[in-house]
Design a protein that fits this description.
The complex is a heterodimer of chains A (429) and B (316). By secondary structure, chain A is α/β, with parallel strands linked by helices. Chain A contains 18 helices and 13 strands. In chain A, the strands form 2 sheets. In chain A, strands 6, 7, 8, 9, 10, 12 and 13 form a 7-stranded mixed beta sheet that branches. In chain A, 46% of the residues are buried. Chain B is mainly α. Chain B has 2 domains: 47 residues; 250 residues, MetI-like fold. Chain B is built from 14 helices and 2 strands. In chain B, a hairpin with a 2-residue loop joins β1 and β2. The chains are: A alpha/beta (429), B mainly alpha (316). The interface between A and B is large, with 46 and 43 residues. Chain A: It comes from Cytobacillus dafuensis (Bacillus dafuensis). Chain A: This is Probable sugar-binding periplasmic protein. Chain A: Keywords: Signal, Transport. Chain A: Part of a binding-protein-dependent transport system for a sugar.
Chain lengths: 429, 316
């Protein structure tokens, strides 16, 4: 009898609880947007949401520079933790709130927010034409409108240890055959030619981003495949996968068990001569080993085209469609398009500005950004094939991993990626 | 006089009634927390699973389509069954290796060997570490080039046995499960030891007088009396095996790497619902459906196991 009552009570309480919390949530979200504007016209305050907590000091300087032109607009930089940023931003946007300006993730995830109507289009914002199309594409909605001002370019390329190269009398390769010959020479000397491990999938799509264009022929192929004129089963793409397979002869021992930390260590301790990786690692490598003589070279082509640096826009700023101060927010975004901001940005954050006119005081970063304007090819899997579920990019990573484990063929990899892309990529349907 | 007494008794009755009732007020804080963090999310997941999701935006009501996709649409269905089979392996190996070993160790400690206290603590020590620390530690040990395991094998001239333990699909899952066994051993030892210690001394003495020796004592007398502890461990191991997440995530990330060879249902759920470490798109509907399926599966089997346990107890 007593037991029965307890169970009954428990049921009642839990039911009430759920009912109450469900109700309060509904009313809460429908009430909020009805709040009326406060008419304080004197000084507008804009808030900026971002995942770059480490950039707070840098943005204080950016805001200071902005306030020289617009003293009446107060700007607050309010970053949140990198891994929690998406969740925080998404929930805020869903309830009709969120910062006036926010850092937008590039390509598919950012574009999804634009397509859902949470972002104000930047029609006719002055200064946008300073950016190349590759940089703008990262925040272009499916409707063709521009939704973000690009900030920085990320690049992937082959880094190399200049000391090892000069010690062995080696030169930067100009053709694919020279590249392979170079690898052979390094291997004979008992040094690991390429620091790459296959334990973490993302390393593989990143490496394919560097090595792939040398075989599928860079931008021409990218244009063809995005138009649907060719596909992943084409000989060009399969060759790029085969090249990845051949290179395993130059990877470290037990490469299938090595992750990012392991391969980075192999490179900065001088055990490996080359490291196919992104520009974001420059600062890390220098911190780990200040004596490292770091160089990079564009990947030489195997099909008689130009050597390539892989580049893509890695972040942009957007205006919240629900912001009460859209006009002021757009003024801030316009400031972000200026050369003045670009220079401040590269200086403070040590990254390649998305604005190609901006120079950096770091020689390596500078020559990289020069290379980007001349011989860049997009990181195809991130820029065009990050859609679907699982994404085509993730499928490539998984199947490449399978290939390195001997459970998949290069043709099989290409086939699986094609199969996945056909489920969502419009030109293939 | 009469009426006064009457009001007095009424008061007493009222007080007694109130006392009986106010007992029911004490669980309220617990119920609030339970409802807020267990029941509500569960029902929320249930409701999410009936909708079509476009990224973070809830779309139309689609009934059981998410459940259908989970079991019929490629690559989701093959990922599901692959992860499920890994969970089964998790359970079997933990039952045999972890709990088998724990039973023997508990028996040895129960025999009051020298240093019993020390062993009891030694077995339990890993449990005091956070799972993330355990994962990181073993990741270092398993590292193919700098890790202690391969270095040791090299020292003993066993280079041929050196392996990229966590990078090889043949060894990665087993390595993780064995680490989990190491981690969970102490807890099982404690439960079994408590079981042994609760067996009445008279029973054992009587058996000894009847001439039961070590092995016979164990199989004929102690083992049957240990059935309740064994059942408890079985249920706990079952739940833990099918919820396996932290250690896999700490050692291999959310992709079930390499080549999905270490995927478990919980890791697969995480990847579906929140997007993988590879910047994958989220599938909240499918993820919620998987969570509901997982909940139903675990609760049903736990209920069956508990029922079996009750029966066994009565038989004794």
């Amino acid at each position: 009898m007593k037991k029965a009552r307890k169970i009954w009570l428990f049921g009642l309480f839990s039911f009430l609880l759920i009912f109450a919390s469900a109700c309060s949530k509904d009313t809460g979200s429908s009430e909020k947007p009805e709040k009326t504007d406060e008419g304080t016209k004197e000084k507008v305050t804009l808030s900026i949401g971002s995942w770059r907590t480490e950039d707070t000091a840098g943005y204080a300087k950016v805001i200071e520079a902005f306030n020289k032109q617009y003293p009446d607009i107060k700007v607050e930089f309010k970053p949140s933790k990198n891994t929690e940023y998406n969740t925080i931003l998404n929930t805020a946007l869903q309830s009709g709130e969120g910062p006036d300006i926010f850092h937008l993730r590039p390509y598919a995830p950012g574009i999804a927010l634009a397509d859902a109507g949470y972002i104000e289009p930047l029609d006719g914002l002055e200064g946008l034409d300073a950016f190349p199309e590759t940089a703008l594409a990262a925040s272009k909605g499916s409707d063709g409108k521009q939704y973000g001002v690009p900030l920085n370019m990320s690049t992937t390329q082959m880094f190399y240890n200049k000391k090892i190269f000069s010690g062995l009398g080696l030169e930067v390769p100009k053709t694919w055959d020279e590249f392979i010959a170079l690898n052979e020479k390094i291997k004979k000397e008992g040094i690991i030619p390429i620091a790459l491990g296959t334990k973490e999938g993302w390393l593989l799509s990143a490496a394919h981003g560097i090595i792939g264009p040398a075989h599928y022929g860079g931008n021409d192929f990218v244009e063809k495949i995005t138009n649907g004129e060719t596909d992943f089963k084409s000989a060009e793409f399969v060759n790029s996968i085969k090249a990845m397979d051949e290179l395993k002869a130059y990877f470290p021992d037990n490469y299938e068990g090595l992750g990012m930390e392991d391969i980075r260590t192999l490179f900065f301790t001088g055990k490996a001569a080359m490291f196919p990786m992104g520009s974001w690692e420059i600062e890390v490598l220098r911190k780990m080993n200040p004596d490292l003589e770091l160089g990079f070279f564009p990947m030489p082509s195997a099909v008689g085209k130009d050597a390539t640096i892989t580049a893509w826009a890695d972040g942009s700023f957007a205006v919240n469609a629900n912001s009460k101060h859209k006009e002021e927010a757009k003024k801030f975004l316009q400031f972000l398009t200026t050369k003045e901001f670009g220079e401040l940005f590269t200086k403070e954050f040590k990254m390649i500005s998305a604005n190609p006119e901006v120079k950096s005081d770091d020689e390596l970063v500078n020559s990289l950004s020069e290379a980007v304007t001349k011989i860049s090819t997009p990181y195809m899997m991130v820029v065009y094939f990050a859609g679907g579920n699982p994404t085509s990019k993730a499928t490539l990573e998984l199947e490449l991993q399978g290939m390195y484990l001997g459970q998949q063929t290069p043709e099989g990899v290409a086939g699986k990626v094609q199969e996945n892309a056909e489920t969502w990529f419009k030109p293939f349907q | 006089m009469q009426t006064e007494l009457n009001t007095e008794t009424i008061k007493q009755i009222k007080q007694r009634k109130w006392k009986r009732w106010n007992i029911h007020l004490f669980p309220i804080p617990a119920l609030v927390i339970y409802g807020l963090f267990i029941v509500y999310p569960l029902l929320a997941a249930l409701s999410y699973s009936f909708f079509d999701w476009k990224g973070i935006k809830r779309g139309a009501f689609i009934g059981f389509d998410n459940y259908k996709d989970l079991f019929t649409l490629e690559p989701f269905s093959s990922m599901f069954w692959k992860a499920f089979s890994h969970n089964v392996l998790y359970f079997v190996v933990q039952m045999v290796v972890q709990n088998g070993l724990a039973f023997l160790l508990a028996f040895i400690i129960y025999q009051k060997i020298r240093g019993a206290e020390f062993f009891k603590i030694a077995y339990f020590l890993p449990r005091l570490l956070s799972v993330i620390v355990v994962g990181f530690l073993w990741k270092l040990i398993f590292n193919p080039n700098f890790g202690a395991l391969n270095v040791l094998l090299g020292k003993f001239g066993l280079e041929s046995l050196q392996e990229a333990w966590l990078g090889n699909p043949k060894t990665a899952l087993m390595a993780i499960i064995l680490v989990n066994c190491w981690f969970g051993l102490g807890f099982s030892v404690l439960i079994f030891l408590a079981g042994f210690q609760s067996i009445p001394k008279e029973l054992i003495e009587a058996a000894r007088l009847d001439g039961a020796n070590g092995l016979k004592m164990l199989t004929k007398i102690l083992l049957p009396l240990m059935v309740p502890s064994i059942m408890i461990i079985t249920v706990l191991t079952f739940i833990q095996s099918f919820e396996a997440f932290e250690l896999v995530y700490a050692m291999q990330g959310s992709q079930g790497e390499p080549y999905r060879s270490t995927d478990t249902l919980a890791v697969y759920f995480y990847r579906l619902a929140f997007g993988g470490s590879s910047g994958d798109s989220t599938a909240i509907g499918l993820g919620s459906a998987l969570a509901v399926v997982l909940f139903i599966f675990i609760s049903t089997f736990t209920a069956i196991l508990l029922k079996m346990m009750k029966k066994k107890e009565i038989e004794m």
